[in-house]
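Annex B, item 7. Sequence and structure tokens for protein A, then protein B.
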Amino acid sequence: MGNLEPTETHCEVFFIGLKPPARGKGIGKSLLQPVLDDADTKKVGCYLVSSNPRNNTN
């Protein structure tokens, strides 16, 4: 990420991969939810770097 990486305390998700048959079923969300909950508890930001535009939703 270089100069785009946040400088404040944050959580990072380095990698999550699912085989195509497992995609679109909420499995990735289930894997991410504990990380997001922990970040909320600690009141820190969390970001995911993704090359898949489908993952870049609000």
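Protein B:
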Amino acid sequence: MTTLIQNGQVYTNGQLIVADVVIDNDRITAIGEPGFWQGSIDQRIDATNKLVSPGLVDVHVHYRDPGETQKETIHTGSLAAAHGGFTTVGAMPNLDPAPDTPARVAEMVRRNQQEGVVHIAQFATITTGRQGDQLVDFAGVKKAGAFAVSNDGSGVQTAGTMYQAMKGAAAAGLPLAAHVEDNSLLFGGVMTASDRSRQLGLPGAPSVSESAQVARDLVLAKTTGVHYHICHVSTKESIAMVRFAKQQGVNVTCEVTPHHLLLTVDDIDGHDTNYKMNPPLRTKADQQALIAGLQDGTIDMIATDHAPHTVADKPADFTQAANGITGSETAFAELYTNLVKPGTISLTKLLDLMSAKPADLFNLNQAGHLEPGRPADLAIFDLQQSTRIQAADYQSKGINTPFTGDQVYGDTVLTMVDGHVVYQRKEG
């Protein structure tokens, strides 16, 4: 079947052009000036005054399946991704059982392909059960289909374990994505130690719990040569160290979440636990450092850390509520509205951070680019009309986000995976 997407503002080869896109079955076959295509057409999609983007790529989502399917499943999580314009995601391994053996990884890869409506790349764990010091079979989990390894949700506490893990991951050619958190520096904190935590009377954890482990890991990464990736970087000290490490030739990349770019510790009122996440919201100075890191290239990509929970997991008591918020369905619109429209970053920069960069750096070779010969993975966004984010529209099982109710631009109109429409906005 031949599909023609007409008159869109198309992001291709790093630039925005008004163009038509021709799709033949599962592949993009041509991109050209409006009206250039003279061949037969089975389906037309009018993208006038709309953005046509490569399918977005999110290397950090939590799908809770198996283990906590009341929070999310592979299917509902992938529907949420499609709603947000994502066509490729990286699923974290904090599952029960965890994908910590080649057989378990292979089973997750099979289920992801069978039950997801978008492409789902699978993380394996770094250690058995995602805890302790027993390393996984890195070569084995890669052969089984893992695209990277991570213990996300838990920092690797022992330097010797991280050193050996980096050596093993490097030998297998696997990126190692680290949740950087030194548990001995948390002191029972449920938010960042700050003037705000003291005002609210809530226990605070110093932000050095992140940056101390970043410092350790950067030294180890330089020694081992591993592709070391820092998950959800959040402090000004971490950014400064990553910037310096890159100048020294360390093979380090990092991601930032939309919520750490758009919110700070001062947004916490102590009762709305949708503002509780890990790493916790940081200070205004940290937020400014993250934005500067986006602007100068220190931060390589944006990832949502999509973390669905049930309503019961998020009681009003900040000390008892689970960490994490959903992100797949709000990320692009919130970032376009709050960073691109005010001129903080360009639209092309945002698209690069959410498509080509994560795909290229994690060797997701079929993702992140809208070009002839590539898979027909794309999204169409409405940048002209504002919409209100509503919980009733979420495809995820989780509604735990502080962004519900926001008025935004950049709503997803349509998402296509391998030439098939997997999400389409209801009009009227």
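Comment on protein B: The two ends are 28 Å apart (CA to CA).
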